[in-house]
Design brief:
Layout lengths: L8 H9 L10 E4 L4 E3 L13 E4 L2 H6 L3 E2 L19 H11 L8 H8 L3 H12 L3 H19 L4 H7 L5 H12 L18 E6 L6 H10 L3 E3 L2 E6 L1 H4 L3 E7 L4 E7 L6 H11 L6 H8 L3 H9 L24 H7 L6 H10 L6 H11 L1
Parallel strand pairs: 2-4
Antiparallel strand pairs: 1-2, 1-3, 5-9, 6-7, 7-8, 8-9
Length: 367
């Protein structure tokens, strides 16, 4: 995935013209004539090339003064994973922002938690996301609020609280500024769900091996029953008590239900759900890079939807571990970066705990 400074504008436009779903969430198109930004798969009539500019993140589009399209709804795009494999600092910062680090703190404090200077953190965000950390945080709040408006029966005051806004007034002012209308005007009655708890669908990029994920989660002791994963919430860990459950929905979506009396805990809970189920993984990029290894190529082709189960509580907010106990594997695995952990996952899923099969494969290819 290209960083913000290297986005190929012409290639992006070709993807928009063909509405290529492979690029959904990888970039957004900003339409100069309407002031709207869209997903590459937007069903609206494609604007002329001279009227479009492409950015790597929704935050970059909103920072430039564009507002989210009400037809393709950018909040429903797969989570933007351009940072995966590009900057560990940015990936850790995004995990903290998603969990609410900038809802009550500032960029300087966030940089301190990451062990870098504030200017360095801002520079990295510009390089990889095309927007400042504060803009990224606000865009995440706005897009979560839009999803809650469309998919739930929560009042506007509850939506403001659940999406991380400090006050209803700030919530209303932000939406009025971005959409030139109050947030209540965005609600579409036909889309709302009327069941208990806050129910949302979270996007991911297919394919997704749901049985393998549930098996891995059950194997480590998580509560899994009848194709549904559940997890208890605790005030000292999650900021509220309650229960969260996850099950598959339509292709490219997971259905999440969060039943808690404290709506302000919702952003952090959703961030942890995304981490546990590895929703930001990019199967195409993983398959492309791992396929350079002759053994991994066949393994990835056989199981393209494998994901890395994450921890519910992970204070380090680091990417999955990619360390190897076998010294012979370390040098070979260097060629798998930035997806070493996925390479190890595919080896384990195939039962290749040692290198015997890999060494035979190398000999076969050498012959």
């Amino acid at each position: 995935m290209e960083i913000a400074a290297e986005l190929d504008q012409e290639a992006c436009y070709r993807a928009v013209v063909t509405r290529d779903a492979r690029f959904d969430g990888r970039f957004f198109g900003c339409v100069k004539t309407t002031g709207v930004y869209c997903r590459p798969v937007c069903p609206a009539r494609t604007p002329k090339r001279e009227n479009m500019v492409f950015v790597v993140s929704a935050a970059a589009a909103e920072e430039a003064g564009f507002r989210a399209c009400l037809r393709c709804r950018p909040e429903t795009a797969p989570d933007m994973g351009a940072w995966r494999g590009t900057s560990n600092t940015v990936s850790r910062a995004l995990a903290l922002i998603e969990a609410g680090a900038l809802d009550g703190g500032d960029v300087d404090a966030l940089a301190g938690r990451l062990g870098v200077g504030e200017r360095q953190l801002r520079r990295l965000f510009r390089q990889h996301l095309g927007a400042a950390p504060v803009s990224v945080a606000q865009t995440r709040r706005v897009l979560l609020a839009k999803a809650l408006i469309h998919q739930t029966d929560l009042s506007m005051a509850q939506v403001a609280l659940a999406s991380g806004f400090g006050s209803v007034r700030r919530f209303n002012e932000t939406f009025q500024h971005l959409y030139d209308r109050p947030p209540s005007a965005l609600r579409r009655r036909g889309e709302r769900l009327h069941t208990g708890g806050v129910r949302l669908s979270l996007p991911y990029r297919p394919p997704y091996d749901w049985p393998a994920m549930l098996s891995a989660l059950a194997g480590r002791g998580d509560a899994v029953r009848d194709g549904r994963w559940t997890h208890a919430l605790y005030p000292d860990v999650d900021g509220a008590g309650g229960l969260v459950s996850v099950e598959p929905a339509d292709v490219g979506r997971l259905a999440v239900c969060v039943d808690t009396p404290e709506l302000k805990a919702l952003p952090g809970v959703l961030a942890r759900v995304r981490r546990v189920f590895d929703l930001s993984a990019d199967p195409q990029a993983i398959a492309r890079d791992l396929a350079a290894d002759p053994v991994l190529r066949s393994l990835v082709e056989a199981r393209p939807g494998l994901r890395l189960p994450g921890l519910w509580v992970d204070d380090r907010t680091d990417p999955p571990s990619d360390r190897f106990d076998d010294d012979r594997l370390v040098s070979r695995a260097e060629r798998w970066r930035p997806w070493r952990a996925y390479g190890a996952l595919h080896l384990a899923a195939a039962g290749l705990g040692d290198l015997s099969v890999m060494e035979r494969s190398d000999a076969k290819h050498a012959a």
